[in-house]
C-alpha cells in the first residue's frame, strides 16, 4: 500500500461541537513510505478549513491517528495555514503573484508558504517557516506594505502557537523521515496501467495463487495529497444544494461537489496546475461522501465486479484480463456505514431488520454500477456489498467477436433474427455476460423502431444520443417488501404504449415469466435475460416449478446460452449454444418440447459453429411463414451481415456510434435487397482513423 494515503477526515456535527476524526490507522504503511512530513502536512491541511468554527459558539474536538506529542504542534500549524490560505485567501493570491514576479527575493519565502513535496515548511516545520517569514518582515525586501502586514499576522499566529509546543519535536521530525520500502512485500509485476489519479499494478506474490490489484496514487499527484484532504474537509462543511433522495441523488451530489472542489482548488491553491486540479477535485468529491476507497474500482473499465464481504478485509474483484484479484484496499466499519447511507439515499429503499436486502443502480457522470446489499440479520455479523460495473464505453458486437465471445457467423444469424423482430433471450449462470450480449444486440436495431425498456435495475444503454426512439421504465425490485410499480402490470400497460421492440431485462420470478409470456402472446417481441444453466433447465424450471403450459414457450424464438470460465488468472465469457424450441401441439407436457441446437461449441477451446442448415431452423420456419424468402436470398443476406461484421472487426471500428450508424444503413440496404458491404461501410475507415 506504499503511497496510498487515505486520510479521509470525518466530521460529526453536534449542537455546539464538531468532532473530527481520521480513518487512517496509526501504523500506516503510507506514512512509512512517504515520510512523516507529508503525513503532518495532510493533517494540517485537513484541519485548517474547520478553524473558522473555532469560537465561543462551537468547539472543536480532534482525534488524530498520529503520535500524541504532535497534536498541539499540528493544531498550531493549522491555525497559521487557516489564516494564510482560508481567512485571507485574496491576500494570499496577491502574495503568490508577487512571489512569482519577483525572482530575486521569492525563493525561500515560496519554500516556506507553498505546498511542495520537499519544501512547504509552514505545513510541517513551523520553526523554519517562522524564521524565513521573520527575515522577510524585518529585512529590506521591497514587499508591498499590505503584504508585510499580512505576513506579520501569520507570523504572530505561528509564533504564539509554537510557544506551547516542545522544540525537541524537530529531532523527532528528522528521525521520522527515513523511508522503509522493505515494509512491503514485493512480487512480480505482471501488468500495469495508468488510471488517473491512480496507477494500477497487477502483481503476483510468492506462495500466493491470488493476484494482487495494487492501487497507488500517481507520482505527480502524491505530493499534493494534503490539498485533497483540505478540499474534502471544505466540501463537507460548505453549503451545497439540498438534493432530494431517490435515483439521481448521488449523481447530482457528486457533480456539485466536484465542481465546487475544482473552483476551490483554483482559488485557494494556485500552485496546482490546471491539469492536476480535476484529479484533486475528483478525489476530494468522492472522499467527502465516503467513496474514495471505492473510486479506483468505480472508474476502472477493466474491473467487472468487486466485492466487500466484511469490514477489515480486502476488497476483491473480477478483472477482465487477470480474473479474480485481491486489492490492497480494505474498508472499516465506518466506511461501510457511510456507503450504505448513500445507497439508501440513492434508492429510497429500506435496509433494516424487516428488509435486510437492497438492490439499486447508480448512474453518474463518473461511473454506472448495479449494487446489491445484504445486511444482518440475513447475513451473519456484517453487511455484504457487491458492485457490478458497466463500462463507460459499452461492449459492442464487434468487441464480442474480437474477444471470442461469439463468432461472426452466429452474430450474423442473430442480427438476421433481430431485424425480423424475433424474440432473443440470453440465459446463463450469474455474471456470464447475458446483459452484455443483449445490450450489444440492442444497439443494432433499426433507427425507426420505438423501443421500450422495463427494468428493476437500469442496465440498458441510453440510446437517445445514438438517434434511437427509446423510453425506459424503472420498476420496483423484487427485494422491495411492498412493491407499487410491478413489472407484470407495466408489461400489460405496454399494449397502449405502441412499442416496436421490448427490453425486459432480468426475468427472475414466476410473475416476471408470466409478464414475458403475456407480452409474447400479444405479439410483442424483445430482448431478455434469465438465470439458467442450460435451455433444458430453463424449461424444467418454468414448466415444472412455475406451472407454465409447455405450448406457451413456442414464442421464445432464440435462446442464447452464455458460459463463463473463471480459473486462476483466466476470466472469459463465451456463447456456448444457440438453441430454438420447437413445440408440437397444445400440450402441457415437457415431452412435447424439442430443443434444436442451431450453433454449438463442443468445448471451451473450440469455435462456435452452426450444427444444422440455418434455413431449416425453427425460427426461420416461422419467418418463412410470414414473408417470402428463399434459401438463396437468406444465404446472401446472412453472408452480407457476416462480411460486414468481419470488415468492421478488421477496421477495429467498435465505437457504439459507428456500429449503430452502420447497421442502420445495413437494415435499409437489406430491405431494398442490396447487399454491398463497401457501400454500407462508407466513411467508416475515415471515422476510425480520426
UniProtKB/TrEMBL annotation:
The Swiss-Prot or TrEMBL record describes its family as follows: Belongs to the GSP E family.
Q: Which Pfam families does the protein's record reference?
A: T2SSE
The Bacterial type II secretion system protein E domain, residue ranges: 364-555
GO MF term (any one): ATP hydrolysis activity
The record's annotation in SUPFAM superfamilies points to: P-loop containing nucleoside triphosphate hydrolases
The record lists the organism as: Thermoproteota archaeon
The superkingdom listed in its UniProt entry is Archaea
Matches recorded under InterPro entries? P-loop_NTPase (IPR027417), T2SS/T4SS_dom (IPR001482), T4SS_GSP_E_ATPase (IPR050921)
Name of the molecule in the record: Bacterial type II secretion system protein E domain-containing protein
Amino acid at each position: 500500500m506504499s503511497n496510498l494515503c487515505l486520510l479521509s477526515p470525518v466530521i460529526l456535527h453536534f449542537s455546539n461541537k464538531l468532532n473530527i476524526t481520521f480513518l487512517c490507522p496509526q501504523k500506516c504503511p503510507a506514512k512509512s513510505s512517504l515520510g512523516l512530513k507529508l503525513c503532518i502536512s495532510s493533517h494540517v491541511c485537513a484541519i485548517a478549513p474547520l478553524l473558522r468554527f473555532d469560537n465561543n459558539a462551537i468547539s472543536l474536538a480532534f482525534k488524530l491517528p498520529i503520535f500524541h506529542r504532535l497534536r498541539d504542534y499540528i493544531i498550531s500549524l493549522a491555525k497559521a495555514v487557516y489564516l494564510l490560505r482560508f481567512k485571507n485567501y485574496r491576500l494570499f493570491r496577491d502574495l503568490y503573484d508577487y512571489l512569482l514576479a519577483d525572482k530575486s527575493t521569492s525563493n525561500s519565502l515560496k519554500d516556506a508558504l507553498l505546498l511542495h513535496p520537499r519544501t512547504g515548511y509552514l505545513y510541517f516545520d513551523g520553526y523554519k517557516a517562522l524564521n524565513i517569514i521573520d527575515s522577510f518582515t524585518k529585512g529590506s525586501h521591497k514587499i508591498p506594505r499590505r503584504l508585510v502586514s499580512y505576513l506579520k499576522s501569520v507570523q504572530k499566529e505561528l509564533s504564539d502557537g509554537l510557544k506551547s509546543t516542545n522544540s525537541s519535536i524537530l529531532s523527532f521530525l528528522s528521525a521520522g523521515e527515513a523511508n522503509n520500502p522493505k515494509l512491503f512485500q514485493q512480487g512480480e509485476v505482471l501488468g500495469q496501467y495508468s488510471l488517473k489519479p491512480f496507477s494500477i499494478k497487477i502483481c503476483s506474490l510468492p506462495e500466493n495463487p491470488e493476484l494482487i490489484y495494487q492501487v497507488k496514487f500517481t507520482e505527480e499527484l502524491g505530493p499534493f495529497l494534503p490539498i485533497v484532504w483540505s478540499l474534502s474537509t471544505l466540501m463537507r462543511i460548505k453549503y451545497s444544494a439540498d438534493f432530494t433522495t431517490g435515483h439521481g441523488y448521488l449523481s447530482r451530489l457528486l457533480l456539485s461537489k466536484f465542481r465546487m472542489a475544482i473552483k476551490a482548488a483554483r482559488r485557494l491553491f494556485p500552485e496546482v496546475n490546471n491539469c492536476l486540479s480535476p484529479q484533486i477535485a475528483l478525489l476530494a468529491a468522492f472522499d467527502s461522501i465516503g467513496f474514495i476507497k471505492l473510486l479506483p474500482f468505480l472508474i476502472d473499465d477493466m474491473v467487472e465486479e468487486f466485492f466487500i464481504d466484511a469490514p477489515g478485509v480486502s476488497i476483491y474483484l473480477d478483472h477482465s484480463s487477470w480474473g479474480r484479484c485481491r486489492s490492497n484496499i480494505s474498508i472499516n466499519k465506518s466506511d461501510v456505514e457511510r456507503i450504505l447511507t448513500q445507497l439508501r439515499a440513492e434508492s429510497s429503499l429500506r435496509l433494516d431488520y424487516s428488509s435486510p436486502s437492497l438492490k439499486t443502480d447508480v448512474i453518474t457522470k463518473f461511473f454506472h454500477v448495479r449494487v446489491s446489499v445484504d445486511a444482518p440479520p440475513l447475513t451473519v455479523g456484517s453487511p455484504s456489498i457487491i458492485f457490478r460495473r458497466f463500462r463507460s464505453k459499452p461492449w459492442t458486437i464487434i468487441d464480442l467477436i474480437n474477444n471470442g465471445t461469439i463468432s461472426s457467423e452466429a452474430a450474423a444469424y442473430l442480427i438476421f433474427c433481430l431485424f425480423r423482430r424475433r424474440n432473443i433471450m440470453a440465459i446463463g449462470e450469474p455474471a456470464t455476460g447475458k446483459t452484455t450480449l443483449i445490450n450489444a444486440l440492442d444497439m443494432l436495431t433499426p433507427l425507426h423502431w420505438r423501443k421500450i425498456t422495463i427494468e428493476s435495475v437500469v442496465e440498458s444503454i441510453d440510446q437517445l444520443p445514438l438517434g434511437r426512439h427509446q423510453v425506459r421504465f424503472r420498476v420496483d425490485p423484487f427485494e422491495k417488501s411492498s412493491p407499487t410499480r410491478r413489472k407484470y402490470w407495466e408489461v400489460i400497460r405496454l399494449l397502449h404504449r405502441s412499442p416496436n421492440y421490448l427490453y425486459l431485462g432480468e426475468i427472475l420470478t414466476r410473475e416476471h415469466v408470466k409478464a414475458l409470456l403475456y407480452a409474447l402472446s400479444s405479439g410483442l417481441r424483445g430482448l431478455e435475460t434469465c438465470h439458467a444453466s442450460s435451455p433444458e433447465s430453463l424449461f424444467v424450471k418454468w414448466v415444472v416449478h412455475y406451472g407454465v403450459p409447455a405450448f406457451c414457450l413456442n414464442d421464445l424464438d432464440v435462446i442464447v446460452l452464455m458460459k463463463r470460465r473463471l480459473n486462476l488468472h483466466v476470466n472469459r465469457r463465451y456463447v456456448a449454444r444457440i438453441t430454438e424450441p420447437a413445440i408440437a401441439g397444445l400440450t402441457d407436457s415437457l415431452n412435447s418440447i424439442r430443443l434444436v441446437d442451431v450453433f454449438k461449441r463442443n468445448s471451451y477451446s473450440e469455435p462456435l459453429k452452426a450444427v444444422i442448415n440455418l434455413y431449416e431452423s425453427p425460427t426461420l420456419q416461422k419467418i418463412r411463414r410470414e414473408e417470402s424468402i428463399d434459401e438463396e436470398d437468406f444465404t446472401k443476406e446472412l453472408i452480407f451481415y457476416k462480411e460486414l461484421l468481419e470488415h468492421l472487426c478488421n477496421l477495429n471500428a467498435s465505437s457504439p456510434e459507428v456500429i449503430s450508424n452502420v447497421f442502420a444503413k445495413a437494415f435499409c440496404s437489406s430491405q431494398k435487397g442490396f447487399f454491398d458491404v463497401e457501400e454500407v461501410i462508407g466513411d467508416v475507415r475515415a471515422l476510425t482513423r480520426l
